[in-house]
Design a protein that fits this description.
Layout: H1 19-33, E1 44-45, H2 47-54, H3 58-70, E2 74-77, E3 81-84, H4 89-113, H5 116-124, H6 136-153, H7 157-177, H8 183-199, H9 203-224
Antiparallel strand pairs: 1-3, 2-3
């Protein structure tokens, strides 16, 4: 049976005063949406193909790729091509550890002062998913948005900015592993406990629950996930 390749979903970008910026943002978004840790992920980028699909010349595209190279999202290899960067398992484990520290502090801050609308958003991303077996794809997306919502609820934009550098890789690993073992059902339980702690303004508990939740992901990756 043929295996479907996972590749970039490219949307053409129109004319603007800064095509390089538009190309950079569009390409970064496309990489973020792609599961780069899928076994069939196409990691090599074709400059000519990207130029045609974006609908721009190769000059602003090369400038955008150079910026992504500086940020470590792609690697430009002389005489070989351009490749989306996939982290090693050790690097992924370190990233999850840092994410646990950032998000747990975000949860503490959220418990201290998050407005009612943020609590409503967190509940909406948790309450509808009693039976995740029926809503697997939908819950996978809601799971990621839940963690992003906690970062926003902290009221500290710097936490979100730092976490953004880890997001692409941590998101891909969460999506890849969420339905392994009993992680999905456990995730629902954890999320509801976290929302309750934040709602009750218990910063100590919210911080601990989020840290333990994310470190369980780390333990699962360490024990069960092979990353080429």
């Amino acid at each position: 049976m043929d295996m479907q390749k996972t590749s970039l979903n490219i949307v053409p970008i129109g004319e603007s005063q800064s095509l390089k910026t538009r190309a950079y943002e569009a390409l970064k978004a496309a990489i973020a949406e792609m599961n780069i840790y899928d076994d069939n992920a196409v990691l090599r980028l074709d400059e000519r193909d990207l130029s045609a699909r974006f609908g721009i010349s190769r000059t602003p595209l090369r400038e955008a790729l150079a910026q992504l190279d500086q940020e470590g999202l792609v690697r430009v290899v002389a005489r070989r091509g351009i490749f989306i960067v996939r982290k090693t398992k050790a690097e992924i484990l370190d990233m999850i550890t840092v994410w646990a520290a950032l998000e747990s502090m975000a949860a503490r801050l959220a418990a201290e002062h998050t407005p009612p609308e943020s609590l409503t958003e967190l509940r909406q991303l948790t309450d509808p998913y009693d039976d995740v077996s029926r809503k697997m794809g939908e819950y996978s997306d809601a799971n990621i948005r839940f963690h992003q919502a906690i970062l926003r609820a902290s009221g500290n934009p710097l936490i979100g900015d730092i976490a953004d550098g880890l997001f692409l890789h941590v998101r891909a690993i969460r999506n890849r592993t969420i339905f392994e073992k009993d992680r999905a059902q456990r995730s629902i339980v954890d999320h509801r406990q976290i929302v309750t702690a934040i709602s009750e303004r218990d910063g100590d508990l919210a911080e601990r629950l989020v840290r333990e939740h994310t470190l369980r992901l780390r333990a699962h990756v360490e024990q069960h996930v092979d990353i080429p």
